[in-house]
């Protein structure tokens, strides 16, 4: 048991068995083979869009995260502000204050994947410097310091849209 504990805490094994740590190419290359096979099998090139019908292109990675967030009820999503590229930073800082977002906060590209360019910002100066590095739209979100982060994928038939009450 002690040996297993040592192995399971070793950074090498953690990175090997947790795909979140894999290089992008190592993660996606099997899909370049498997994806077309699934498309042939389903006889539809965009078969994967059925997994996330409420997200443009099924969440392929080229959709606006901010637009997708707007589909979630406000009470269930983190406070968020869109910082369009080229916009005066003073206006963005004002939007952040108006939304009730305090530092530290999270800055991430509006279009991106797998945590690319997602950074925690501790000060307005740090945010200003970071946003000026990349000419892209960013989402500024409140920093949620929870012990765990969860994601959900619901499979199978969804619940009926219309509920019928008993007489």
Structure report:
- 35% of the residues lie in helices and 10% in strands.
- It has 167 residues and is of the alpha+beta class.
- It is globular, with a radius of gyration of 20 Å.
- Residues 163-167 have low confidence and may be disordered.
Q: What's the topology here?
A:
Layout: H1 2-9, H2 11-17, H3 24-42, H4 65-69, E1 80-83, H5 89-98, E2 105-109, E3 119-121, H6 124-133, E4 138-142
Antiparallel strand pairs: 1-4, 2-3, 2-4
Question: What's a concise summary of this model?
Answer:
It is built from 6 helices and 4 strands. It has helices at 2-9, 11-17, 24-42, 65-69, 89-98, 124-133, and strands at residues 80-83, 105-109, 119-121, 138-142. It has a 4-stranded antiparallel β-sheet with strand order 1-4-2-3, covered by helices on one side.
CATH topology description of the largest domain = Dna Ligase, domain 1
> What is the CATH class of the largest domain?
Alpha Beta
Write the CATH architecture name of the largest domain.
2-Layer Sandwich
Which percent range describes the beta-strand content?
A: 5-15%
Largest sheet: 4 strands, antiparallel
- Termini Cα gap: 59 Å
How many β-strand stretches?
4
**Sheet with the most strands: spatial strand order:** 1-4-2-3
Integer count of domains: 2
Helix/strand class:
alpha+beta
Can you identify the CATH superfamily of the largest domain?
A: ATP-grasp fold, A domain
Write down the overall geometry. globular
Question: Uncertain spans, ≥5 residues at pLDDT below 50?
Answer: 163-167
């Amino acid at each position: 048991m002690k040996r297993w504990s040592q192995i399971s805490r070793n950074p090498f094994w953690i990175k090997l068995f947790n795909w979140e740590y894999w290089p992008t190419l190592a993660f996606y290359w099997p899909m370049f083979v498997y994806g077309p096979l699934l498309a042939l099998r389903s006889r539809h090139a965009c078969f994967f869009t059925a997994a996330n019908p409420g997200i443009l292109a099924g969440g392929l990675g080229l959709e606006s995260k901010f637009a997708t967030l707007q589909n979630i009820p406000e009470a269930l999503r983190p406070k968020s502000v869109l910082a369009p590229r080229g916009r005066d930073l003073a206006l963005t800082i004002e939007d952040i204050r108006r939304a009730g977002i305090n530092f530290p906060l999270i800055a991430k590209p509006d279009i991106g994947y797998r945590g690319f360019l997602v950074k925690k910002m501790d000060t307005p100066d740090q945010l200003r410097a970071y946003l000026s590095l990349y000419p892209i739209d960013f989402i500024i979100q409140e920093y949620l310091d929870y012990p765990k982060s969860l994601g959900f994928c619901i499979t199978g038939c969804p619940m009926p849209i219309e509920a019928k009450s008993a007489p």
